[in-house]
Amino acid sequence: MELIDGKLISQQIKDECKERCAKLKAEGKEPALAVILVGSDPASSIYVNNKKKACEYVGIKSLSYELPEETTEAELLKLIDGLNRDDSVTGILVQLPLPKQINEDAVIRAISPKKDVDGFHVENVGALCVGEPGFVSCTPAGIIQLLKRSNVDIAGKNCVVIGRSNIVGKPMALLMLRENATVTICHSKTADLKGICKQADILIVAIGKPRFINSEYVKEGAVVIDVGIHRDENNKMCGDVDFDDVKDHVSKITPVPGGVGPMTIAMLMNNVIEAKER
Ligand code: NAP
Q1: Were both Cys, which of 116, 143, 195, 266 would link to 10 (CB 3.0–4.6 Å)?
Q2: Pocket around ligand 1: residues whose beta carbon is below 6 Å from it?
Q3: Closest ligand 1 atom to the C-alpha of 263?
Q4: How far away, in angstroms, is 208 Cα from ligand 1 center?
Q5: Average confidence (pLDDT) over 132-149
Q6: Domains of the chain, start order
Q7: Is residue 118 among the annotated active site residues?
Q8: Which residues of 14-36 are buried (b: 16+ CB within 10 A; e: fewer)?
């Protein structure tokens, strides 16, 4: 069994971004990311801080907007409108989830697709669907990098994606299809999940349930990508995959932590640089 090292690969990507950023700056083009946080959810604050730190490392200017919990949708939309019009702003990121008085879909649609570095806007999702250039959701884009940089052949392989969320499962399946895998998407209504997963050469798990996938779901020698992030009853981090149970049956696997997690921010940095390069 070989571990797919997301820490190492994400560092490589951030270092490549740093070089590209220096080149842009030398041409007088400074990339800037506007990060909007509404409210004071502790997990969201940590994510936002990590994104700012990554910007600092790469050399991207980060503009921070911390709005109170009671911010209205109209106020947030007005801020986004201003940032859309501001040529010095390369990318706009609104940290989700938003407080309940704000409609997330309306907010995502308000961000200019050219500045939608999270890749959530319908225009970018549509571009991915029809094979045109656009921004791709960072977590699935990061998983493609993990596979490629770990020398996993994708073309012609049976890939099973568990989960069909708009930010992970669906774009993941489309990206694997773009890489010429034969793709199956599973969800909570799937009949015979075990049987289908057992066919997978590459199994990508984004089910949102701690240690749900054990060796009964995994074909001998498969590559397993674990998207889940949880804390178990002992406050230990774990994924959607029961790592200890499957590790002797796989050829390659991502650990939690240190697998998919660090890739999301690295790909965000990549998207901001790409937005400025375009
Ligand atoms: P989500 O929106 O909750 O989606 C979970 C998916 O799993 C849904 O499509 C659901 O099916 C499916 N599912 C639930 N129970 C199932 C079952 N028993 N059998 C088969 N499918 C089942 O979650 P998400 O946002 O995609 O995230 C998934 C996981 O990845 C979470 O643990 C999350 O914390 C983690 N995550 C990590 C990162 C990262 O940076 N590493 C980023 C995003 C998310 P239905 O559609 O039928 O309900």
Answers
A1: 266
A2: 139, 162-165, 167-169, 186-190, 193, 206-209, 227-229, 240, 260-261, 264
A3: 40
A4: 4
A5: 98
A6: 28-113 (3.40.50.10860), 138-261 (3.40.50.720)
A7: yes
A8: beebbebbeebeeeeeebbbbbb
> How far apart (Å, rounded) are the C-alpha atoms in residues 193 and 113?
36
**19 Cβ partners below 8 Å, 6+ apart?**
none
For residue 244, give the H/E element and its range.
helix 243-246
What average pLDDT does the segment 73-85 reach? Answer: 98
- Assessment of whether the complete model's pTM goes beyond 0.85: yes
- Closest C-alpha among 82, 195, 163, 175 to residue 129: 175
Question: What distance in Å separates the CA atoms of residue 277 and residue 255, rounded to the nearest whole number?
Answer: 33
Query: 45: which 2 tokens?
Result: 């604050």
**Contact in structure between 39 and 253 (CB atoms under 8 Å):** no
Measured in Å, residue 185 CA sits from the centre of ligand 1 at 12
Nearest-CA residue for atom 40 of ligand 1:
261
Mean pLDDT of 43-72: 97
Distance (Å) from CA 121 to ligand 1 centroid: 20
Closest Cα to atom 19, ligand 1: which residue? 188
**Amino acid type, 248:** D
The atom number, within ligand 1, closest to the CA of 168 reads 26
Beta strands in 125-228 (DSSP E): 158-162, 182-186, 202-205, 222-226
Distance 86 CA to ligand 1 centre (A): 35
- Contact, 54 vs 14, CB < 8 A? yes
Q: What's the chain's Rg over C-alpha atoms?
A: 19
Q: What is the pLDDT of residue 263?
A: 98
Retrieve residue 181's tokens: 């895998």
Closest ligand 1 atom to Cα of 227:
30
Question: Cβ neighbours of residue 72 under 8 Å, at least 6 residues apart?
Answer: 101, 102
